[in-house]
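We emphasize that the prediction below concerns an isolated chain of 175 residues; any contacts that depend on oligomerization or on bound cofactors are therefore not represented. The input was used exactly as deposited, without trimming of termini.
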Amino acid sequence: MNSDWMMPDDIFTWIETNIKKGESVLEFGSGHGSIKLAKHYNLFSVEHDEEWIGISDSTYIHAEIEENVISAVNNQQGWYKQSLIRKVLKENNIVLFIIDGPPGNIGRHGLLSLLDILPQSAFYVVDDIHRDEELDLFNKLERWHCGKSKTFTALYDSGKERKWGVLLPLIRGDS
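Result of the prediction step, given as a C-alpha cell string:
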C-alpha cells in the first residue's frame, strides 16, 4: 500500500479530537483510511470505483462520475452522481465532510453543485490543498462556509509534503 495515497495521520488525530465518536461523517473517496474512520463514526463513503467499495464497515454510496456543469467550468471531467448524495444528505445529520475524492485527475469542484443543501454548520476537511485545484476548491468553500479555517502541513514517511485544510463552523458569539 502506498501510504502517500492515504490521508495523513494528522487528519485522523484532528478528527478524533474534534468530532465526537458516533457522529455521522461523509467522505468523498474511500480508501484504507475509511477503515480507521468506520471504527469510531457512522461513516458514509461516496465512491465511484467499485474496487474500493466494501473495504471498511462504512455505508457505501456507489456514485459513478457524471457530467457536471461546475466541473466543466473548472476544466474537470465531472463529479459523483448528485442525486445519490442529495438523498444521503436529506436523511442524515452529517457533522463532518471529508473531501478526498474523486481523484485529482477527475476533479473535485463538483462538490460546489451541492451548496444549496450542504450544511454550513458542519466541519469540512479538504485534503491535498498543496495542489492548485484543491486549494482553489478550499478557497471557494471557505467563502461560502462563512466560518473559520485552518490549514495544516503534514509529512509522509517518504518526506513528501502534504497540505490539508479545515473549515470550522461559526459558533454563536463568533464573528
